[in-house]
Batch of 2 targets.
Target 1
Amino acid sequence: MNRRSVLAGLGITGLASLSGCLGLVGLDEHESSPAGVTAAAREETGYEQTAIEPLTVDREVGPTNEAVTVTNYMTSHEKAVDMGPLGRKRGAVFNVLTTPQVSILGRELNPIEEMSTQQLVKLVRQNYDGIGNIEHQADTDVTVLDQSTTQSRFTADAEFSGQDVSVNIHITEAVEANEDLLVTIGVYPEYVQRLEESNIMSLTAAVTTDVDENPSSTGSDSAASDTENITDSTSIDELDNATSVNGTANVSIKAESGDDLLG
């Protein structure tokens, strides 16, 4: 999948109305801090933290074409699962996105603060080529950083190594993370829902602003052992009744072959 700059541009939209004075009030540059998941939760669920990626965009806004720079961060976690005919691939992902709060006179200008999960999943769709047939399935209340928020599950069609894959997307509405706003995005193939849905819930509850900058490989798949016996691996053979799923949203789900589910 080809990724566009939609997610990188979060935080800029609300600044356009203030163009011409952003530099004077210190609003021309914004950067969030990365967040992640506790090491204990990664170990328990078999997910490996694979990247902390800055998503930076420079744009000119408003009639005065004032330059604005916003840097968001995406922390990616991956897990190898059985992808059927494709074999064992890193097809399950959990991403933590942070974007800076941008406020003036008590007014929050970053639109992500008020976005519903339906609006957020549309952003994800716009950010990647090859995602379609997104349908809302269910909502649940979750706690992220001691704040109650909504997590929604969507089904969707995605593409992996040139083949169509039905996936589930779990996405949360934004919560505050110190001076930033934070959203979580979990994606996995539909047929491993019985195992991975609970893992996504555990990872969501374990989100932390104390991100590991250089974590050791503690996930279910730390490169060389992709096809070996891996603890907490997900296999189709372990599922009695493979259900049909959909749902997609991801940022950088890289497989061993270099393919991305949604990246």
Target 2
Amino acid sequence: MTTERGPDGRFPPGKSGNPAGGGRPKLPDWFKSRGPDALRVLLAQATGEIIPCDDGTVLPAVQQVAKESTTKDRKEAAAIMADRIYGKAPDVISGDPDNPIAAAIRVEFIKP
């Protein structure tokens, strides 16, 4: 798959070098709009435990998710929380210390 670039090698306005999307997974809209309640649901999914609200009540969604979440659901929920709390882990490139990879990066500033 190729993406068309302009004569200067840049992507034209409105076009992307990554048309398939990607990047950080987006939080669902229901999560953004509910704040602490959504966090309780996510925690219930990750742990299987029921986390009551500050006033002691338990949301029905928390009970349902805590009962029905699978191991896969728990791992996904835990990964989402870890990425949001600590940031996504950086990719590490490693090699043989006795035979390092030679690399050079050239930065050139061009006036528009």
